[in-house]
Amino acid sequence: MAERDVNNLTLRELFNSAERLTRELIEHLEQGFLFKSRSLARLVAATPGEPEYEQIEDLTIRNQVDDLLKSEDFTEQLYRRLEQYYRAIDENVTRISTGG
């Protein structure tokens, strides 16, 4: 089901959607993005001479970087959608409070 245009939503629908997207963003950051980021940091932090260092291939690092970049793209998409909802909420509240 396609999402409705934020300009056609009621204020209640805007708040509900913004809350849902906020939860989705938090869950993604905590369970996806940060996990991938930490995994990559541990991978590249191996130092020469350690057994793990000798087993790391360039392809492994490239794949993990690719996963992290895809996760970052998804984070950015969620953030932009959320920003639209926040902007629409602000406009609605301003219009209501000024009587316009």
For the biggest sheet, the summary is:
none
User: What string gives the helices and strands in order?
Assistant: HHH
Uncertain regions: pLDDT < 50 for 5+ in a row?
none
Q: Based on helices, strands and strand pairing, what is the structural class?
A: mainly alpha
Q: Count the beta strands.
A: 0
Mean pLDDT: 89
Tally of separate domains:
1
Outline = rod-shaped
Describe the structure.
There is one protein chain. The protein has 100 residues and is an all-alpha fold. It has one domain. The protein is built from 3 helices and no strands. Helix 1 packs antiparallel against helix 3. The longest helix is centred in the last third of the chain and has 41 residues, at 58-98. 5% of the residues are buried. The mean pLDDT is 89.
What descriptors fit this protein?
rod-shaped; mainly alpha; 100 residues
Layout of secondary structure:
Blueprint: H1 11-44, H2 51-55, H3 58-98
Helix pairs in contact: 1-3
